[in-house]
Specification:
Length: 477
């Protein structure tokens, strides 16, 4: 995509927002317009670089096995609800308290949580524990999709107009979409893509605003911004063009001509335009990545780590930001396997080990590249899960705990309100399904503000943000 195309898309976005401002009246429109111009200029000024990296945990991560009570009082309550407590005890999904000692977290500044709760990470997460201690990682407690603040009484009310809540709660597909876009399945744009819309004028090539290393996802789709997809190895190529077609260079040339030539047929012309853009972009990305090597290892001692491989290509793309003409980028990677209705203890341990290794390797790569304070990584998932065990696993929930990591993170402490360890308290809606106390809109807005989105533009990223008391949760410097 050429600079002219990016400017045209930015012009359309400006005109669209100008129309929205005009609804408020001519005087306020003029004032808000002047403010918007100043803030847009600040967003685009200079040569600074910032990137957001979303790690989506597909299936609904069991946050209760990711961040667990460690103090004896709350641990005993937790163990009584989940069952077990001595490791892989039949009928229970609680690890022995002794196994959590090495990953117990002590927040800075003497922070005190609900009921003097002390948390420990999963035993496999020793690297994230070190990043927490170094002030480079922060957990965000009990965050989830909300339309507006909601109490348990309001949740139980039959008046859904007065007490709105996200549609189709506890459904994988719908809640994945709601987390990524603020809308259930069928949404066409996500909050990562909407930030990409605003960043278009900052990048010389707007095609590289939003990059996915994990296939198609609504999170990175904007109203104008496109998702550019890569594999763990780099740019995706058309094999018949990249290599000789059936051993024939002439065949490859003919295929390129067929795929990129102009046409009077509107559908064929659009297909060929998209094909040409993809072919051209592959050449740009491949050339930009070719000289990039990293000393940081993303390969575990044994086996493979798919998330680490995705994050490795993201690190390489960040290293190639100058030849790609990028100053603001949003990335997405993912791992799956979190829908653990059974065999939770052993499977969750494997997943937590992979997540811990991959996140740590990526952070070390950003240090190597000198951009640790310019890159912020955060987790998201379909939903949390029940505190109550179903015997050998847990069931679909709502609110969950998540991690934010990077050199600009105010780490070493917790954000949000720690939920009670209970299945009857007013901060859960049954079986220990957390009623979120922090909305995804607030999570997104805090990240967007650091990214450079102005206060007046936050509603275009987080459509429900005006209903909440704050748009900045404080976890970013």
């Amino acid at each position: 995509m050429h600079i002219g195309k990016a400017n045209e898309l930015s012009r359309r976005a400006f005109l669209r927002r100008s129309k929205q401002l005009a609804v408020a009246g001519s005087a306020s429109s003029f004032a808000l317009g002047l403010a918007g111009i100043g803030e847009a200029a600040a967003f685009s000024a200079g040569n600074d670089y910032k990137a957001l990296v979303c790690i989506f945990l597909y299936g609904g991560n069991d946050h209760n096995s990711t961040l667990m009570p460690f103090d004896s009082t709350n641990y005993d309550l937790y163990s009584a609800i989940r069952g077990g407590g001595a490791g892989q005890t039949a009928g229970g999904i609680t690890l022995a308290r002794s196994s959590l000692a090495a990953t117990a977290l002590t927040p800075s500044g003497g922070q005190v949580l609900t009921n003097n709760l002390q948390y420990a990470l999963a035993p496999q997460m020793t690297r994230l524990k070190a990043l927490f201690d170094a002030g480079r990682m922060a957990p965000l407690l009990n965050v989830g999709p909300l339309v507006a603040p909601l109490t348990l009484a309001q949740y139980n009310s039959s008046n859904l107009v007065a007490n709105p809540r996200p549609a189709k709660l506890f459904s994988h597909n719908d809640q994945q979409s709601t987390w990524q876009s603020s809308k259930p399945e069928g949404a066409t744009d996500g909050w990562g893509g909407r930030m990409g819309d605003l960043a278009m004028s900052s990048n010389a090539n707007a095609l590289f605003n939003c990059i996915s290393a994990t296939g198609n996802a609504v999170f990175l789709s904007g109203q104008q911004a496109l998702t550019y997809q890569v594999s763990s190895s780099g740019a995706l190529a058309v094999n018949g063009i990249k290599n000789n077609l059936y051993g024939s260079s002439a065949g490859s040339a003919a295929l390129r001509t067929l795929m990129t030539q102009t046409s009077n047929n509107v559908f064929e012309a659009e297909y060929n335009r998209v094909a040409k853009r993809s072919i051209d972009a592959e050449g740009v990305v491949t050339a930009a990545l070719q000289p990039i090597t990293l000393a940081t290892s993303f390969r575990p001692a044994t086996g493979r780590n798919g998330l680490a491989e995705q994050l490795q290509v993201v690190a390489r793309l960040i290293a190639a930001r100058q030849p790609l003409g990028a100053r603001r980028q949003v990335f997405m990677v993912s791992m799956g396997g979190f829908d653990l209705h059974d065999n939770l203890i052993s499977n969750q341990a494997n997943l937590m080990g992979q997540l811990d290794f991959a996140m740590d390797a990526f952070y070390r790569a950003t240090v190597e590249l000198g951009v640790a304070d310019k890159v912020t990584t955060f987790t998201a998932s379909d939903f949390g899960r029940t505190l109550q065990s179903n015997g050998d696993g847990s069931d679909h929930g709502w609110g969950s705990h998540h991690f934010i990591m990077g050199g600009a993170v105010n780490g070493g402490r917790f954000y949000g309100v720690a939920p009670q360890i209970s299945v009857t308290s007013p901060d859960q809606v049954g079986q220990g399904r957390l009623l979120p106390s922090i909305s995804v809109d607030q999570y997104a807005s805090t990240l967007a503000t650091w990214f450079g989105v102005s206060a007046s533009e936050l509603p275009s990223v987080s459509p429900n943000i005006g209903r909440f008391s704050t748009s900045n949760l404080g976890f970013m410097a």
